[in-house]
Each structure stands twice: as structure tokens, then as C-alpha cells.
Amino acid sequence: DQQVKQNSPSLSVQEGRISILNCDYTNSMFDYFLWYKKYPAEGPTFLISISSIKDKNEDGRFTVFLNKSAKHLSLHIVPSQPGDSAVYFCAAGRDNTDKLIFGTGTRLQVFP
Amino acid sequence: DVKVTQSSRYLVKRTGEKVFLECVQDMDHENMFWYRQDPGLGLRLIYFSYDVKMKEKGDIPEGYSVSREKKERFSLILESASTNQTSMYLCASSIRVSGNTIYFGEGSWLTVV
């Protein structure tokens, strides 16, 4: 049973526009959520996180929104740049465990 | 900077061979993880260790074992490699603080023929 879902396997966005990546989860007990970015042949790198007690966290061009009632989070990238082209994974965890559960990933392509 | 180093980036092994994937981290992290990444399946946790000699099964432990004799080193062992274990394997580490990020190595591409 997939507790963290990314229903869009790919997304294509023009440079300068907004990229919105979505993630849904089923377990209302998750305490925090993270986004990771992965380039081909490299390991994932941490991008941004949000606690379940917040509904928004911003870091430069990246903003994560959390809607607990809908069990949904999204990552907004504004403006999108070609270097943002990568696979993005959302992940969720609980305070009583150090393990993260990852989604299936969304491949973002930013074209000129 | 946190450094998680996976000793082999690309390996080709034959079916039935015993395979060792080694991982070392240099930040004195308590937790270490082994994930595999497959298209359409995301990152799936194989095993997790929160201390030396301690291990916990993840979501897909079948066909794998692990060893953690030293804090900085976490090994993944495929006792008898099979073709369905062809994948990208990712080692990661973190400190034992809830909500903290985990740091990944660059990955090991394993092909079993």
C-alpha cells in the first residue's frame, strides 16, 4: 500500500514559469514532510521540508504547501530554471521513527 | 558537509553470486539506510540501522542482509544475486533527531546478468 503518492510521473514547464509538483499521502499520523531532488546517476539531495504543524514553508524559489485536511502537499518552484530539471521525490516521516517513506517521484523538465 | 560514500558506482554480477555493497559516512550519524530506486516505484527502504550491530527490516528486505560492525560503515549483502535485484542502490545516513533530513550517497548501479 503506497502511503505517499506522486500521481504525475512527469511535468514539463517553460523556463521562468511556475512548476507545481504534487504529493498525496494516506497516513494522517505523519509529522513532517520533505522534498528531495535527484539528478540522473546521483543520489537524492534534500530540498525543503515542512512540519505538520505548519501549512507553508519557503526557501528562495522553493515553497512547500501542506493541506492536512486534504492530505496533500505541493512544491512550487518560481521561477523555474533549466537546472531544476530533475526527478523530485516527496517523503514523509513520523516523530517516533527516523525512517522516511518516499513517493514514486515526478520528473520535471524545464525547457527554454 | 556530510559525506556518504558508496564504494562501487557500477557493478555487473552474475546470477547466484554473492554481492557486497559498502557504504561509509563521515559525520558520526547514528542512523544508516539502504534504499533501492526503480522506475515507477520510487525509493524503497531495504534495511535500516540505528546503531552498531542493530538492524531493522524495511519494506523490501527479502533477498538482502546487512552488516554494521562500525558506526560509520553499513554494508548491504545480496546472498545470491538474482536478475530482479538489478537496480540503483542508495545508502543514506542521518542523526537520531526526528524530522531531520537524511543524506544520500551517489548510488550504486547493480546489474545482475
Your description of this structure?
The complex is a heterodimer of chains A (112) and B (113). With 112 residues, chain A is mainly beta. Chain A is built from no helices and 11 strands. In chain A, strands 2, 4, 5, 9, 10 and 11 form a 6-stranded mixed β-sheet that branches. In chain A, strands 1-3-8-7-6 form a 5-stranded antiparallel β-sheet, with no helix packed on it. In chain A, a hairpin with a 6-residue loop joins strand 4 (32-38) and strand 5. The N and C termini of chain A lie far apart (38 Å). The mean pLDDT of chain A is 94. Chain B is mainly beta and 113 residues long. Helices cover 0% and strands 53% of the residues of chain B. Chain B has no helices and 11 strands. In chain B, the strands form 2 sheets. In chain B, strands 2, 4, 5, 6, 9, 10 and 11 form a 7-stranded mixed β-sheet that branches. In chain B, strands 1-3-8-7 form a 4-stranded antiparallel β-sheet, with no helix packed on it. In chain B, strand 7 (64-70) and strand 8 form a beta hairpin. The radius of gyration of chain B is 13 Å and the shape is globular. The N and C termini of chain B lie far apart (37 Å). The interface between A and B is medium-sized, with 29 and 28 residues.
How would you describe this structure in keywords?
heterodimer, A: 112 residues, mainly beta, six-stranded mixed β-sheet, five-stranded antiparallel β-sheet, B: 113 residues, seven-stranded mixed β-sheet, four-stranded antiparallel β-sheet, globular
